[in-house]
Structure formats: structure tokens, C-alpha cells
Design goal:
Length: 90
């Protein structure tokens, strides 16, 4: 008879690559139409004038210009008002 017990199963062995999220162009930088400004999960930053948001919440430039970031108060569904960053291209 063998004296080695059966090996258990490993649960945490899958390793997926990073999603490369984050701010790609910072305030004051030049941007061209269609360029990615922010890659994000959810609406942490909001699109403003001169930008648009794609299906996966990525913010793109709608026109050529300079990227700016401003703080904006946004009302939530619950009625609470919170600060959010708005991305604009001028």
C-alpha cells in the first residue's frame, strides 16, 4: 500500500494579464480625434465637451485639441451629490 495521500486541487492557479487601464493622456497634452484619453472600468471619470465614451467606458477625443480635467459635482440616483472628474478637449 502506498503511504502518500492524494494531492488536493489548486484553486488559485489562473493568471490573467493586466488590462492596462488608467489615464493615457494627462491635462495639457495634445490629442487627435479618436485617440484614447482614459481606459477605465465603470464611470469613474466622465466625458465632457469634445469627448465621447465607448461601450467599455473608454473616453475618446471627439476632436483635436488639448486635454483638460475638472472636478464636477454629480447627483447620484440616491440623491447624494459627489465629486467626479470630467474630461474635456478644447
Amino acid at each position: 500500500m502506498s503511504h502518500v495521500k492524494a494531492g488536493g486541487t489548486a484553486k488559485n492557479v489562473h493568471d490573467s494579464p493586466g488590462q492596462r487601464l488608467g489615464v493615457k493622456l494627462f491635462g495639457g497634452q495634445q490629442v487627435k480625434t479618436g485617440q484614447v484619453i482614459v481606459r477605465q472600468v465603470g464611470m469613474t471619470k466622465r466625458p465632457g465637451e469634445g469627448t465621447f465614451m465607448s461601450r467599455n467606458f473608454t473616453i475618446h477625443a471627439a476632436k483635436d485639441g488639448v486635454v483638460t480635467y475638472t472636478k464636477r459635482r454629480v447627483r447620484l440616483f440616491s440623491g447624494r451629490s459627489v465629486a467626479r472628474t470630467e474630461v474635456t478637449v478644447q
